[in-house]
Amino acid sequence: MKTIGVLTSGGDAPGMNATIRAVTRAAIAKNITVKGIYRGFNGLLNRHIEELEVRSVSNIIEKGGTMLYTARCPEFVPLEGVRKGVKICIDEGIEGIIVIGGDGSFRGAKDLSNEGIPCIGIPCTIDNDIASTEYTVGFDTAMNTAMELMDKVRDTAQSHDRCSVVEVMGRRAGDIALQTGIACGATSILVKEKDYTIDDAIKRINTTRTGGKHHFIVVVSEGFTAGNKIDANQIALKIEEATGVETRATILGHVQRGGAPTLRDRVVASQLGYHAVELLNAGKGNRVVGIKNNAIVDYEINEALSMQNVFDDELYKIAKTISF
Ligand code: F6P
Questions:
Q1: How far apart are CA 220 and CA 168, in angstroms?
Q2: Which one of 46, 47, 207, 278 is separated from 252 by 20 to 30 angstroms, measured CA to CA?
Q3: Where does 65-191 have alpha helices with state H?
Q4: Ligand 1 centre and the CA of 273: distance in Å?
Q5: Which residue's CA lies nearest to atom 15 of ligand 1?
Q6: Strand 287-292 with 49-52, pairing
Q7: 229: how many CB neighbours lie within 10 A of its CB?
Q8: 129 an active-site residue?
């Protein structure tokens, strides 16, 4: 393989830059030319493509966001759009593409592979919702950001003997809620994956209050609020009305997507970026890389997309048992 493309697509995640760097450097080390495709599949369709050299990716390993920018691209969904992309790849001499993003991005990668441009997907999303890997780049940073912010919310909840409802991101997955909930000693964790309800959270506040507890953190995943068609403010109101405990809501939002990637995200980004280049160079395409049992693995994209996410029920049980 002489020339490959690299793009970031979907929601950004801390560690995307570290992944771009690893891909670029690993490819150049094999004498492969790297072309950066800007703003995801949009950049391919609009030919916003520039060669990346060794120094183009200097001083980005520690930066949040993505130097290649990112976007969602509805034009790439119909086959017509994909075929237009293939033509542009051929014109540009791009023989394979590394797609950094989430499962929506991998569908684009699969379609391009099926039309003759081999692609390798690298899971980068704060949501940790890709079933074919135990870990997605960006998750650790997002969790640590949410944890730090929740600690701050907790300080003020404690000072005022209040309850704080904190909504975290994660799309349909409750992983960020679970991990930060346990790390911050949440009284309750409301996620779509479990049938634990707002009424259960209310009961728990009442019983733990009887046991001497004065402040309460209720962590809610956005999957829960979306699934129950309720927002964090409404949950707070329900809790306040039912318990008499003054309650405030905080929606952490996009702050969870920014910031310098943690060590774990930089290291995993480097491992997965390197492995993706190895696969493309070995003539493989239509695959996603990931981590299972601490080893780097790869799967055919369709197989990866058909896998089911497994929620960590044991960790949820632990959180429920020890937070009172
Ligand atoms: O996939 C990352 C994510 O931040 C989700 O947690 C969230 O549901 C979504 O993206 C938000 O998307 P947008 O940035 O388009 O509002």
A1: 6
A2: 207
A3: 79-92, 103-114, 139-159, 175-183
A4: 23
A5: 11
A6: unpaired
A7: 7
A8: no
